[in-house]
C-alpha cells in the first residue's frame, strides 16, 4: 500500500522563517534529484509524524503531493529536535522509474524461538544487522526482508547469500563480494554445540 503525504511549496527562507513554521505546527523540508531543481516545501507536522513513526515510511517509495502535484520520493534525511523529538527538517529525493536506487531496508527475523541453537543449545540469537543496503528499481523495492532462523544452530550464522530476495533486488554488499552475516547464535559459555539429530533421538 502506497504511503501518501501532502506538502506545499515554501517561499520564505532562513532560520527565522523555519522557526516560525515550526511554531505554527509545520515542518520545513526539501525535494531534490531526478535532474530537476530542488524545491523547498513545508508539511503539517501532525500529519507527517503519523506516517514517520512507521517503519515502512523509512524504506518505501512515497507519494508526495506538492500543491496537488504528485511525485515519487524516498526519505533521505531528517533532523529531530534534541528535546521534544519533533521533526525539525526533512529531505526527500525524487526517484526515477528507470534508474536503480540504493535504500536501506529493515530485516524481519522470524522463528527465533524454534531455532535449534536456542531450543536445544539454549543459546541467544544475536542480530548482527537490522537493516541492509539494497539496489533495485523503485517498483521492486521491498518493505522488509525476512530472515528465517528456523534451522540456525549454535555456533553458526546466516549470511546475505542465504536470504531470499524479490526479483530485481540485489544486496549492495554482495555485489562487492561481501557475504556479510546478519544473525548468529554464539555457543553458550561453558556449553557445547548440540547435534540436532542426536538430540532428537
Compact overview of the structure:
With 201 residues, this protein is mostly beta strands.
Q: What would you say this structure looks like, in words?
A:
This protein has a six-stranded mixed barrel with strand order 1-3-2-6-5-4. It has a four-stranded mixed beta sheet with strand order 10-7-9-12. A three-stranded antiparallel beta sheet has the order 8-13-11, with no helix packed on it. A hairpin with a 6-residue loop joins strand 5 and strand 6 (87-94). It is mostly beta strands. Residues 194-201 have low confidence and may be disordered. The termini are far apart. It is built from five helices and 13 strands. The protein folds into two domains: 3-94, Beta Barrel (Ribosomal Protein L25, Chain P); 101-194, Ribosomal protein L25, C-terminal domain (RNA Polymerase Alpha Subunit, Chain A, domain 2), CATH 2.170.120.20.
Itemize the secondary structure elements and their pairings:
Layout: E1 3-9, H1 15-23, E2 26-33, E3 36-44, H2 45-52, E4 62-66, E5 69-80, E6 87-94, E7 101-110, H3 116-119, E8 126-127, E9 131-136, E10 145-148, E11 157-159, E12 170-171, H4 172-175, E13 181-184, H5 196-200
Parallel strand pairs: 1-4, 2-6, 7-10
Antiparallel strand pairs: 1-3, 2-3, 4-5, 5-6, 7-9, 8-13, 9-12, 11-13
Enumerate the spans where pLDDT stays under 50 for 5 or more consecutive residues: 194-201
Mean pLDDT: 91
- What is the helix tally? 5
For the report, how would you describe the main beta sheet? 6 strands, mixed, barrel
How helical, in percent, are the residues?
10-25%
**C-alpha Rg, in Å?**
22 Å
CATH architecture of the largest domain: Beta Complex
SSE sequence, one letter per element: EHEEHEEEEHEEEEEHEH
**Beta content:** 35-45%
- CATH homologous superfamily title of the largest domain: Ribosomal protein L25, C-terminal domain
Shape verdict:
elongated
| CATH topology type of the largest domain | RNA Polymerase Alpha Subunit, Chain A, domain 2
Number of strands: 13
Number of domains: 2
Structural class: mainly beta
State the end-to-end distance.
Answer: 47 Å
CATH class of the largest domain: Mainly Beta
Widest beta sheet: strand line-up? 1-3-2-6-5-4
Amino acid at each position: 500500500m502506497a504511503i501518501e503525504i501532502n506538502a506545499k511549496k515554501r517561499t520564505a527562507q532562513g532560520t527565522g522563517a523555519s522557526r516560525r513554521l515550526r511554531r505554527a505546527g509545520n515542518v520545513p523540508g526539501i525535494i531534490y534529484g531526478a535532474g530537476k531543481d530542488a524545491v523547498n516545501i513545508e508539511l503539517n507536522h501532525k500529519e507527517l509524524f503519523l506516517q514517520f513513526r512507521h517503519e515502512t515510511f523509512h524504506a518505501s517509495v512515497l507519494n508526495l503531493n506538492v500543491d496537488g502535484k504528485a511525485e515519487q520520493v524516498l526519505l533521505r534525511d531528517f533532523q529531530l529536535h534534541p528535546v521534544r523529538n519533533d521533526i525539525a527538517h526533512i529531505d526527500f529525493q525524487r526517484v526515477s522509474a528507470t534508474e536503480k536506487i540504493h535504500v536501506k531496508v529493515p530485516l524481519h527475523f522470524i522463528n527465533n524461538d524454534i531455532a535449534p541453537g536456542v531450543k536445544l543449545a539454549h543459546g541467544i540469537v544475536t542480530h548482527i544487522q537490522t537493516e541492509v543496503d539494497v539496489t533495485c528499481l523503485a517498483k521492486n523495492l521491498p518493505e522488509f526482508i525476512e530472515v528465517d532462523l528456523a534451522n540456525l544452530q549454535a555456533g553458526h550464522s546466516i549470511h546475505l547469500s542465504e536470504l531470499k530476495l524479490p526479483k530485481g533486488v540485489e544486496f549492495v554488499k554482495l555485489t562487492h563480494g561481501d557475504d556479510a552475516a546478519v544473525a548468529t547464535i554464539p555457543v553458550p559459555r561453558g556449553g557445547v554445540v548440540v547435534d540436532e539429530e542426536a538430540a532428537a533421538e
